[in-house]
Specification:
14 helices, TIM Barrel, alpha/beta, Aldolase_TIM, eight-stranded parallel beta barrel, oxidoreductase, single chain, IMP_DH-rel2, 369 residues, two-stranded antiparallel sheet
């Protein structure tokens, strides 16, 4: 791949975000009614490939049930307010009423409440009682502490999600997370991330992960780039990880690992672009945080926003534009690209001539900077 000279001592390759690429229609078109948006991971099948990210501004036990009824998957953050407070209503209200200049401090305060292991169990059981696919997430650090409670409570899908997750974490702690051993012990499908390179993704796939998250978390509320200087444009990152999946498929004799774009999906067209680059599904936060029934009360923030010493996200205003149902299934009342995400995906697939998600991954793309 061609490289660019940054300076005499450093070279770099070009990389692209979703807003820098576009899909190219083929010679065939279809009616939108003749395409399917179904997505499947392990034994669980969903009507569409949009996953609600494990952030408190989007996923509560109630909203997870609502999103599930609309054909999707919602992931509850087991390090969020729902496992720190029996009733987090006051904590949400405190965030909503905070002055903009004090939001970071308020988030640090409400997330200073320790996690209650009993609430981890009760929240998972609450999701199971609702009859939905029960999905929950922990960071790599706390997975080691709480995974047994998570499995015993009956989780269906478990997500190990961090800004960067590797299969080769170096630590002075002799009990550091051994990803391959843990995934074997969990005995439920495990989705792991984030990562953004071919080699890192390949290592995660070899650990036994059912899916790999592409991106560094935080999304539109994240400040990882300005705080840590870390960023990989999402179109390139997804394509690189999709290449790792292709090679691992051959290496493993046919084991298919789901590639999930976790970040950079802000408008309905970004869903199709992520799939075109090789994703099987997308994980969204800000898109669903705009729902009137989202628990964030008009704000969106990632879990990194409450870090006690180094926040890498901020709470951003997200004015409500409609319900979860309208954001996912419409009807759209404007042309902003924020409503009827599944309808937009269907029409994109039909316009380009493809009938399902796997076929859309073969669509031609162009760079249109």
């Amino acid at each position: 791949m061609a490289e660019i000279e940054v300076g005499q001592a450093k070279r770099a390759r070009a990389a692209y975000d979703f807003d820098q690429i576009a899909l190219v229609p083929s010679r065939r078109t279809r009616d939108p009614e003749n395409v399917t948006t179904n997505w499947k991971v392990d034994a669980f099948e969903f009507a569409h490939p949009i996953i609600a990210a494990p952030v408190d501004s989007v996923v509560s036990p109630a909203s997870a049930t609502a999103i599930s009824s609309l054909g999707g998957l919602a992931v509850l953050n087991l390090e969020g307010l729902w496992t720190r407070y029996e009733d987090p209503t006051a904590a949400f209200a405190k965030i909503k009423s905070a002055a903009p200049e004090n939001l970071s401090q308020v988030l640090q305060q409400v997330y200073a409440q320790p996690i209650d292991p009993d609430l981890i169990i009760s929240r998972i059981k609450e999701l199971r009682a609702a009859g939905i696919v029960t999905a929950a997430s922990l960071s790599p650090k706390l997975t080691q502490t709480y995974w047994k409670q998570v499995v015993a409570a009956g989780v269906d899908l478990f997500m190990i999600r961090g800004a960067t997750v590797s299969a080769e974490h170096v630590s002075v702690d002799e009990n550091a997370l051994n990803l391959k051993t843990l995934i074997y012990d969990l005995e439920v499908p495990v989705i792991v991330g984030g990562c953004a390179t071919y080699q890192a993704a390949l290592h995660l796939m070899r650990s036994g992960a059912a899916g790999v998250l592409v991106g560094f978390g935080g999304g539109s509320s994240g400040t990882t780039t300005s705080v840590l200087g870390v960023k990989v444009p999402m179109a390139t990152a997804v394509a690189d990880v999709a290449a790792a999946r292709r090679d691992y498929l051959d290496e493993s004799g046919g084991r298919y690992v789901q590639v999930i774009a976790d970040g950079g999906v802000h408008q309905t067209g970004d869903v199709a672009k992520a799939i075109a680059c090789g994703a099987d599904a997308v994980m969204v936060g800000s898109m669903l945080a705009r729902a009137i029934d989202a628990p964030g009360n008009g704000y969106h923030w990632a879990v990194e926003a409450g870090h006690p010493t180094l926040p890498r996200a901020s709470a951003i205003p997200t004015p409500s534009i409609g319900s979860f149902a309208e954001i996912l299934h419409g009807p759209a009342t404007n042309a902003s690209g924020q409503l009827n995400a599944i309808g937009a995906l269907r029409r994109s697939m039909a316009t380009c001539g493809y009938s399902d998600i796997k076929e859309l991954q073969r669509v031609e793309v162009i760079v249109s900077q």
